[in-house]
Amino acid sequence: GNSVTQMEGPVTLSEEAFLTINCTYTATGYPSLFWYVQYPGEGLQLLLKATKADDKGSNKGFEATYRKETTSFHLEKGSVQVSDSAVYFCALSDSNAGNMLTFGGGTRLMVKP
Amino acid sequence: NAGVTQTPKFQVLKTGQSMTLQCAQDMNHNSMYWYRQDPGMGLRLIYYSASEGTTDKGEVPNGYNVSRLNKREFSLRLESAAPSQTSVYFCASRETGPPYEQYFGPGTRLTVT
Question: Under DSSP, is residue B76 helix (H, G, I), strand (E, B) or coil?
């Protein structure tokens, strides 16, 4: 079956630090990959996505590249802000599994001023 | 365009009580989903509906029932609430075509005492 593995949190950074949150996946088909963000007390929002190998998704200064050879989709940001404090979820959608979303466990990011 | 809406936002039940969580979407999506989110466990799929008139079990369906009332609305019912059902519940709807992005509601925080 499909699975998504994320680094466990919490990740605590100082403002303007570089962020990497690791995500690896296993899938039976050729999945689309997503990062969702959940701010405190809110639902999940799509942050970025990539649909094929070597695609780079980007939004709000965050980036992730679809690496088929390493089955990874790591999230990066060059300079985090306090407002980036949230829980980040990596997910995949696989046509071989009815395009259902499979989520990782989430990584909490805390950014200190 | 409200996206995905859920009611209520908060609810406290006593063990054995019943309730229905309501969800509606205005994006004309065919597929809708109910998830629960528990600390450290990410999101787990309870039930989904691929189209109006169909429903299917997800990963954790026990203790729940669903109704796809029409294309817009998908409700989740707890017939006899248990403390193990204390969680945050999210409804989502999904795009009809690739990359099959899901859009989430703001969530219902349920406590069963």
Answer: strand
Residue A96 reports pLDDT greater than 80: no
B98 pLDDT band, cuts 50/70/90, is confident
Residue that the structure tokens 């109006």 belong to: B52
Smallest CA–CA distance, residue B108 to chain A, in Å, is: 9
| Paired tokens of A97 | 């599994």
Cα separation of B68 and B42, whole Å?
25
Which are the contacts of B62, defined by CB distance < 8 A and separation ≥ 6? none
A98 interface with B at CB cutoff 8 Å: yes
CA distance A27 to chain B (A): 15
Token reading at A72 = 């990874």
- Which residues of chain A have a CB within 8 Å of the CB of B94? 99
What pLDDT digit, counting tens, does each position of B26-43 carry?
A: 999 999 999 999 877 788
Q: What angle do CA A27, A31, A33 make, to 5 degrees?
A: 110
Chain segment B47-64, per-residue pLDDT in tens: 999 999 899 999 899 999
Across the interface, do B90 and A104 touch by the CB < 8 Å criterion?
Answer: no
